[in-house]
Design brief:
By secondary structure, the protein is an all-alpha fold. The chain has a single domain, classed as Four Helix Bundle (Hemerythrin (Met), subunit A). Helices cover 70% and strands 0% of the residues. The chain is built from nine helices and no strands. The protein starts with a helix and ends in a 19-residue tail after the last helix.
């Protein structure tokens, strides 16, 4: 029953956050110039607060988190402030309102079909992806925070499926933002961010192996770093002793 409650809570909070993200972005397109800059600040602050769930004890942690913040700022400034993508491609493709790369599709499928499909499916889907990413960060931090004082290796909950749910959460947030509003800058930055978090995860695996030895090596053999397996192998319940 406890697991059912956790799943239900995860789904409910994901829906709430997704709805908030949907309206905080969608309604911004009808705001005035000053209101849009306020909206930029609100979105940037909200989406960067989740960095507080990641410890800053190592210098290596700061670089990917700094790139994450830069990604958020670049995307929302271009979305509501300075449309760099439009400036770069307007002359090349002949569009005067190509605010992101998705707008290129309007020339292929037409504006009405594109906007109908985008607003009905792509835009809401991006918010769900971001909502899942946010929940991975929160729930991942919650488990780590509980186990930190006990000095145990966490292998249950989210950590039963992936070793680095929080870093996966950051990648899903930025992936959802790219799905919602793909620009030249964020298109370039996302692979860089993915590599930085992969390197950070690799470094943390080495530290965990030094601390927990064979227990972590066994856990690492059975649980992937970022992409969950379809079938989950049973882990030793060493952390429940």
């Amino acid at each position: 029953m406890g697991k059912l409650k956790e799943v239900a809570l995860f789904i409910v909070v994901t829906i709430i956050i997704s709805v908030f993200l949907y309206y905080s972005t969608f309604t911004g397109f009808s705001f005035g110039t000053w209101d849009k800059w306020v909206l930029i600040a609100i979105n940037v602050v909200f989406l960067t607060l989740f960095i507080l769930f990641i410890p800053f004890k190592k210098k290596m942690t700061r670089l990917p988190n700094s790139v994450y913040v830069a990604f958020i700022v670049a995307l929302y400034v271009e979305m509501y402030g300075i449309p760099l993508t439009m400036y770069l491609f307007a002359g090349v493709f002949g569009y005067d309102k190509m605010f992101s790369l998705e707008f290129l599709l309007t020339g292929v499928v037409g504006e009405e079909p594109f906007y109908r499909f985008f607003n009905s499916y792509v835009f809401p889907a991006s918010k769900v992806i971001m909502g899942i990413g946010i929940l991975l960060i929160i729930f991942g931090w919650r488990q780590i925070h509980k186990a930190r004082s006990q000095g145990k290796l966490v292998t249950t909950g989210l950590y039963k499926y992936v070793r680095h749910p929080q870093y996966l959460g950051f990648l899903l947030i930025t992936l959802g933002l790219n799905v919602m509003w793909l620009t030249i800058i964020t298109l370039i930055m996302w692979p860089v961010l993915a590599v930085l978090y992969w390197r950070l995860a690799k470094k943390e695996d080495e530290e965990m192996e030094e601390q927990f030895g064979e227990e972590f090596r066994e856990y690492k053999r059975k649980v992937p770093g970022f992409i969950p397996r379809l079938r989950i192998k049973k882990l030793e319940k060493s952390n429940q002793v």
